[in-house]
């Protein structure tokens, strides 16, 4: 059987308001998201033995990412499960149940999107898995040997995406542009973006639990609306400012992890452009006002200040303290990436 590949994108929330708490424990949201070109790499191949064999690696390597974060390569912040708790694994279980496929899957997952960052890495991997596995099932259904496999339709994938997580339906739609998500995140409306937007993202080397951030958050009163952000990005980029980018989870996340607030201050000190935390944190981003600015200059400035701080701390406290587990912006480490909005659909490659 062939291998099916794609590159699941991350996302940034440009606006997030909490409208209420629901009886099922979830929060009613109004959020505006864009997919960005910081991407994981995913390959899925149907195999005969009825097992899911999943290998997960950091790209370019675990030690390279650990160096950037200033943590030891075995630090738990870099642990991504390769067991049934990985959303890729759970997505394949759902596909098998819905399609009646009795074989197994060999899966390779290369991570670039940090976990627990609010960038939706796990959700995007899950949505991409549904799309790849559905394509494989469709091919299997056509082969005479596998006539008992049921082809999956868009409605099946949507229902599975909702079971996997609130952000997964957004990533199921591989189009570019900007999305408004309401309900618990599954009620989606897509808008065309006339041009791409550039950002610099900073992940401070601490993972935040989405459930814990929501547990500690407050329902807003009065509530803001995402309309203003949608209009600004789609029609009036000159009106984008610190005032309209908003995330109701930001103060809660800063309270749970000082590193989130430190990263936001660091961004505000280094750039005059608006900055915001994404999703439930821990990553934050700067939006670059100049559409011709690739973000590389700001990213280079941030890398320089990060490395100066790393060297200063290393001289003060020695290298052992630097690589203590959990150290992050405090000790100089942070992932810094210049990213753009995705302007093209993520393709499925078959080989
Ligand atoms: C913060 C965002 O990333 C913004 O896009 C999403 O709201 C989070 O989406 P997600 O990671 O897919 O979250 P889920 O896996 O569905 O839920 C994780 C936990 O977050 C809380 N949760 C999530 C979504 C939501 N609208 N209300 C919530 O209260 C629930 O406690 C849930 O148990
Ligand atoms: N494919 C996956 N990639 C990364 N983490 C995964 C994956 N599957 C399960 N996980 C688990 O889910 C946790 C959080 O995943 P994720 O990266 O989506 O969080 P997030 O960036 O905060 O996303 P969100 O924006 O949805 O809140 C991780 O700490 C990890 O243990």
Describe the fold and architecture.
With 351 residues, the protein is of the alpha+beta class. The protein folds into two domains: 4-189, Ribosomal Protein S5, domain 2; 194-340, 2-Layer Sandwich (Alpha-Beta Plaits). It is built from ten helices and 14 strands. It has helices at 62-69, 87-99, 121-142, 154-164, 168-172, 210-216, 227-234, 250-256, 258-270, 296-322, and strands at 4-6, 9-21, 27-39, 41-47, 52-58, 104-111, 178-183, 187-191, 198-203, 246-247, 275-277, 284-287, 335-340, 349-350. A five-stranded mixed β-sheet has the order 5-6-4-1-14. Strands 8-7-3-2-10 form a five-stranded mixed β-sheet. Strands 11-12-9-13 form a four-stranded antiparallel β-sheet. Strand 11 (275-277) and strand 12 form a beta hairpin. The longest helix is centred in the C-terminal third of the chain and has 27 residues, at 296-322. It is globular and about 65 Å long. Mean pLDDT is 92; it is low at 321-330. Residues 80-81, 85-88, 115-123, 125, 167, 207, 210, 279-280 line the site of adenosine-5'-triphosphate (ATP). Catalyzes the phosphorylation of the position 2 hydroxy group of 4-diphosphocytidyl-2C-methyl-D-erythritol. One of its GO terms (molecular function) is 4-(cytidine 5'-diphospho)-2-C-methyl-D-erythritol kinase activity. It catalyses: 4-CDP-2-C-methyl-D-erythritol + ATP = 4-CDP-2-C-methyl-D-erythritol 2-phosphate + ADP + H(+).
């Amino acid at each position: 059987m062939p291998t099916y590949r794609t590159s699941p994108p991350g996302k940034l929330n440009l606006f997030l308001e909490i409208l209420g708490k629901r009886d099922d424990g979830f929060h009613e949201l109004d959020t505006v998201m864009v997919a960005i070109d910081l991407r994981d790499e995913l390959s899925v191949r149907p195999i005969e033995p009825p097992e899911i064999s999943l290998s997960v690696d950091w790209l370019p390597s675990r030690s390279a990412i650990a160096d950037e974060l200033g943590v030891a390569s075995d630090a738990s912040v870099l642990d991504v499960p390769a067991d049934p708790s990985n959303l890729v694994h759970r997505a394949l279980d759902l596909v098998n149940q819905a399609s009646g496929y009795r074989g197994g899957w060999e899966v390779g997952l290369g991570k670039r999107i940090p976990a627990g960052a609010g960038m939706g890495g796990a959700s995007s991997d899950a949505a991409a898995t549904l799309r790849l596995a559905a394509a494989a099932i469709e091919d299997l259904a056509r082969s005479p040997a596998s006539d008992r496999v049921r082809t999956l339709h868009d409605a099946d994938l949507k229902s599975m995406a909702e079971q996997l997580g609130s952000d997964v339906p957004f990533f199921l739609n591989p189009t570019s542009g900007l999305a408004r998500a309401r309900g618990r995140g599954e009620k989606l409306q897509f808008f065309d973006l006339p041009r791409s937007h550039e950002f610099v993202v900073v992940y401070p080397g601490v993972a935040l639990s989405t459930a814990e951030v929501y547990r500690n958050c407050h329902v807003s009163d009065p509530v803001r609306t995402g309309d203003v952000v949608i209009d600004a990005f789609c029609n009036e980029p000159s009106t984008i400012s610190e005032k309209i980018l908003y995330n109701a989870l930001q103060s809660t996340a800063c309270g749970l992890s000082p590193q989130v607030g430190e990263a936001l201050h660091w961004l505000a000190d280094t750039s005059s452009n608006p900055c915001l935390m994404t999703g439930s944190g821990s990553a934050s981003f700067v939006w670059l006002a100049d559409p011709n600015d690739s973000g590389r200059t700001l990213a280079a400035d941030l890398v320089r200040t990060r490395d100066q701080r790393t060297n200063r701390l290393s001289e003060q406290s020695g290298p052992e303290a630097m690589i203590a587990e959990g150290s992050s912006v405090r000790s100089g480490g942070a992932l810094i990436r210049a990213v753009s909005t995705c302007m093209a659909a993520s393709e499925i490659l078959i080989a």
